[in-house]
Write a structure and sequence with these properties.
heterodimer, A: 263 residues, alpha/beta, TIM Barrel, 6-stranded parallel beta sheet, B: 404 residues, Rossmann fold, 2 domains, 6-stranded mixed beta sheet, binds pyridoxal-5'-phosphate, Tryptophan synthase alpha chain (chain A), lyase (chain A), tryptophan synthase activity (chain A), Trp_synthase_alpha_AS (chain A), Trp_synthase_suA (chain A)
């Protein structure tokens, strides 16, 4: 069982997301530590990309803020942030980024650094099942889970993807890009049921969740909830004061996902 | 005109050596798979092929002329120069070849809405045109900077019944328009077909676009044979994403005596930051669904690019071009803004042809290389489009104010 799978043991997981270097180095460290203190089970750190095609306006704006001062922001600086974070918390961490960032650093070198720093998983929206072969050997070697995405239109791909998954499975709540929503696809339970038929790897629903009510609802369908844009909005709105707000929000959301007993 | 051979490319895997692939969000994977299967089916379907043929002939005005540029040949004093006149197609550029093929496929797939990205607006205009022809809904994504500098084409698209969305994210140019089109597609796949405008993106786009554009070299090869009995010694075409170039090269790739040259936009110079010369300045990467060559920084962020030509300022190149470059089968040369503008004026005065500024990148290379070649040698240069759309910006470049 991997460290990420462990995070779902005997409870529903709350998985917040923030973008690295938004607003800066220190802010990132403080924000992640606050999320951990608030009770996040896994924290997803987004590595900013110039062209985040799977992300909506809120996360796009975070990426722009993160790269504004230094468009050449080196990957090593982000690894340094994680090293700082690791001095203060051992919360399971995963990166969310686009494949080119990993490709440029080198698959072997990148996953080796992840292992060293306790980054247990990678969520890469532009790396579907068919293309993960090039990264998989290095990821396996360094015990980094490649978290796959399953969507309401994955159809007969669901089983193939689920069978290959380790860590957890990212269930995309609806069509489109990331961003807060008021409605989700209505066949999510069926989707999760199909996944559970072929694997014990836990599922977490993401894309659009922002209220505690939604988190409760989604955690009844799946094993956890991922919240991105709502956290990023807090960072955007409160800047240096964001950590305290993120901590409160995480407490509330963590309670919301565990509002009902685990089956 | 003989029917277009859509089975020229024996490699239909979507991989060109290490390049190509389908690096795209999961939401789109099933749809790309449906598209791939539909294309594999319809490209061998006699009815589809007849429809395609009739549209190319009766609607797009094919075959396009292969024209012997006699004055230019004499003036340059070397190789004989033939111009493949894609500028004479309906809508004024090679873009229509691809658009007809893909829209026909979309129709057969039961789609009722076409979306597209556009830079200069030529592909958007071609897509809006074919959408009007088929009575389909059409929405075009165009960077805000491009909608501002190509107002005429924006109006043309609207006139044709399309809705144009100015894209305000990122650097507000072509690459951002592609991002926006992809994002729109992930929201609405059922009735929507994303009609990609160049030989770029995830499989099957590079393959389909190449096949539909290969009409350029299929015709040129036959036409030149009729006129001279020979193969060309060199084929030259401009490269943005690479659709007119791959179409110009396709039927000559297996003829080793034919040198293939792609003219990239060097902007202010290949060595400067203000360039779009992807093959010369770029490096391997993964973006917009494909592994290919890109202009990017060390971390892997995609660079803003620059060229006077809105159709060539794209930070990447189609995967098959990356492969042809890597294997040495084709060469890629950078042409600066200055050289392209000089060529724009040169070909106007020398041949009476106002060619697109994109195409003039190829013409500029011909001006350099023809004098160094023998008189019995032959160059085929593709004029990918006509230059009416560029007249006002060239005037501005020369400091002439023709706007009110
Ligand atoms: C006339 C013309 N030529 C060339 C291009 C570049 O595209 P490609 O490299 O795909 O042929 C464009 C794109 O807008 C164009 O309008």
């Amino acid at each position: 069982m991997t460290k990420l799978t462990d995070a779902f043991k005997n409870k529903k997981a709350f998985i917040p997301f923030i973008a690295a270097n938004d607003p800066d180095f220190e802010g990132t460290v403080n924000n992640v530590v606050a999320l951990a203190k608030g009770g996040a089970d896994i924290v997803e750190i987004g590595i900013p990309f110039s062209d985040p095609i799977a992300d909506g306006p809120v996360i796009q704006a975070a990426d722009i803020r993160a790269l504004k001062e230094d468009p050449d922001l080196p990957m090593d600086t982000i690894f340094d942030m994680v090293a700082e974070i690791r001095k203060q918390t051992d919360v399971p961490l995963a990166f969310l980024t686009y494949l080119n960032i990993v490709f440029q650093y080198g698959y072997e070198a990148f996953t080796a650094r992840c292992e060293e720093l306790g980054i247990y998983g990678l969520v890469i929206p532009d790396m579907p099942l068919e293309e993960r072969g090039e990264l998989e050997p290095a990821a396996k070697k360094h015990h980094v889970d490649l978290i796959p995405l399953v969507t309401p239109v994955s159809g007969d791909r669901i089983e193939k993807i689920a069978k290959a998954a380790t860590g957890f499975i990212y269930v995309v709540s609806s069509l489109g890009v990331t961003g807060e929503r008021s409605e989700f696809a209505n066949d999510l339970s069926e989707l999760v049921t199909r996944i559970r038929k072929v694997t014990d790897v836990p599922t977490a629903i993401g894309f659009g969740i922002h209220t505690p009510e939604q988190a409760t609802e989604m955690a009844q369908i799946a094993d956890g909830a991922i919240v991105g844009s709502a956290c990023v909005n807090i960072v955007a709105e409160y800047g240096k004061q964001a950590p305290a707000k993120l901590l409160d929000y995480t407490k509330q959301m963590e309670k919301a996902v565990n509002a009902h007993p685990v089956r | 005109m003989t029917e277009l051979n859509l089975n020229l490319n024996k490699n239909t895997t979507g991989r060109y050596g290490d390049y190509g692939g389908q690096y795209i969000p999961e939401t789109l994977m099933n749809e790309l798979d449906r598209m791939t299967k539909a294309y594999e089916h319809y490209k061998n379907d006699p009815e589809f092929k007849t429809e395609l043929h009739d549209l190319l002939v009766d609607y797009a005005n094919r075959p396009s002329l292969l024209y012997y540029a006699e004055r230019m040949t004499k003036d340059l004093g070397g190789a004989q120069i033939y111009l493949k006149r894609e500028d004479l197609n309906h809508t004024g550029a090679h873009k229509i070849n691809n658009v007809i093929g893909q829209a026909l496929l979309a129709k057969h797939m039961g789609k009722t809405r076409l979306i597209a990205e556009t830079g200069a607006g030529q592909h958007g205009v071609a897509t809006a045109t074919i959408a009007a022809y088929f009575g389909m809904e059409c929405e075009v994504f165009m960077g805000k900077k491009d909608t501002d500098r190509q107002k005429l084409n924006v109006y043309r698209m609207e006139l044709l019944g399309a809705k144009v969305h100015p894209v305000t994210s990122g650097s507000m140019v072509l690459k951002d328009a592609i991002n926006a089109a992809l994002q729109d597609w992930t929201k609405r796949i059922d009735d929507t077909y994303y009609l990609m405008g160049s030989a770029t993106g995830p499989h099957p786009y590079p393959l389909m676009v190449r096949d539909f554009q290969s009409v350029i070299s299929q015709e040129a090869k036959t036409q030149l044979k009729e006129k001279t009995g020979k193969l060309p010694d060199m084929v030259v075409a401009c490269v943005g994403g690479g659709s007119n170039a791959i179409g110009s090269f396709a039927n000559f790739i297996d003829d080793p005596s034919v040198q293939l040259v792609g003219a990239e936009a060097a902007g202010k110079g290949v060595e400067t930051e203000l360039t779009a010369a992807t093959v010369e300045r770029g490096s391997n990467g993964i973006f917009h669904g494909m592994k290919s060559m890109f202009l990017q920084n060390k971390t892997g962020q995609i660079n803003p690019v620059y060229s006077i030509s809105a159709g060539l300022d794209y930070p990447g190149v189609g995967p098959e071009h990356a492969y042809l470059a890597k294997t040495g089968r084709a060469q890629y040369v950078g042409i600066t803004d200055d050289e392209a503008v000089d060529a724009f004026e040169y070909i106007a005065k020398m041949e009476g042809i106002v060619a697109a500024i994109e195409s003039c990148h190829a013409v500029a290379y011909v001006r350099k290389i023809a004098p160094k070649m023998r008189k019995d040698q032959i160059i085929v240069c593709t004029l990918s489009g006509r230059g009416d759309k560029d007249v006002s910006s060239i005037a501005k470049y020369r400091g002439v104010d023709i706007d009110d």
